[in-house]
Amino acid sequence: MSASVAVKNIVIGTGRPKICIPLMDPDPASLSQTVSQLGELPFDLVEWRADALKNPLSPDVRLEALTLLRRLLPRTPILFTLRTAAEGGLANVNPEEYEEILMDAIRSGLPDLVDIELSWGEERTKRLLFAVHERAMFAVGSRHNFKATPSKEEIVHTLRIMQELGCDLAKYAVMPRCERDVLTLLDATLTMKEHYPDTPVITMSMGPLGAVSRISGELFGSALTFGTAGTASAPGQLPARTLSAFLQQLSVDAG
After folding, report:
1. Strands (DSSP E) along 146-236, which ranges?
2. Where, by residue number, does 3-dehydroquinate bind (predicted)?
3. Which of 126, 171, 193, 195 is catalytic?
4. Would residue 144 show up in a list of annotated catalytic residues for this protein?
């Protein structure tokens, strides 16, 4: 039996993969406009990418945007992410700045989940995990490789480290260079499902070549997938409506 994480009105790790919409707005005003246009789109949670802000280092701007998002989406789980340039994001920060920005978000009590990049080291990850859990939030350990697809063994090993450190969800995104790279990612995901189900995992093979990995999570074991309502946060993301239709058609419980 695979583990699951209950956040507000959703359970991540059971049934179809949950759909997360990334919000890549540069300021609170455009963020408000984007949220107002979500309308009837099929989604379960949102990821607020703080690194997309024009001034992500400003505590006041971050707090204003996060407070606004919480007010507009009171019942929707919010994942706070500061994606750094080294992992395909927009934030150019040093280790201390990264930790302080995440700590600010945690101390605010506004997000439900916080993304923690494993590449900053285990000690920093442990401190952030402690703070997340102290506020009864959930941590998503993450690793992104925008250049290639590591071996199955390396992917599994990294996801296992996230589990052992105490991350509530473990995420790994890779870039495929050929069809077999996509199979490598799916094989690693299935291995986690079959042998290490203690923590829900989130995996994806990016770009057009890896799009199949974004719709096959229920079968192979990825608990969450990202669908767009505007600007994509990573290559290969599908529109939320398209993604939802695929997930319904491919559901193992569909018929």
Report:
1. 169-174, 201-205, 224-228
2. 47-49, 83, 214, 233, 237
3. 171
4. yes
Which of these is catalytic: 54, 126, 144, 193? 144
Q: Which residues contact 182 (CB under 8 A, 6 or more apart)?
A: 149, 176, 205, 209, 210, 212, 213
Does 33 show up as a binding residue in the annotation? Answer: no
User: Per-residue pLDDT for the chain (255 aa), expressed as one digit of tens each?
Assistant: 568 999 999 999 999 999 999 999 999 999 999 999 998 899 999 999 999 999 999 999 999 999 999 999 999 999 999 999 999 999 999 999 999 999 999 999 999 999 999 999 999 999 999 999 999 999 999 999 999 999 999 999 999 999 999 999 999 999 999 999 999 999 999 999 999 999 999 999 999 999 999 999 999 999 999 998 877 677 778 889 999 999 999 887 644
Quick check: pTM over 0.90? Answer: yes
Annotated binding residue at 124?
no
Query: Is 83 annotated as belonging to a binding site?
Result: yes
Could you identify the residue written with the tokens 């040093």? 94
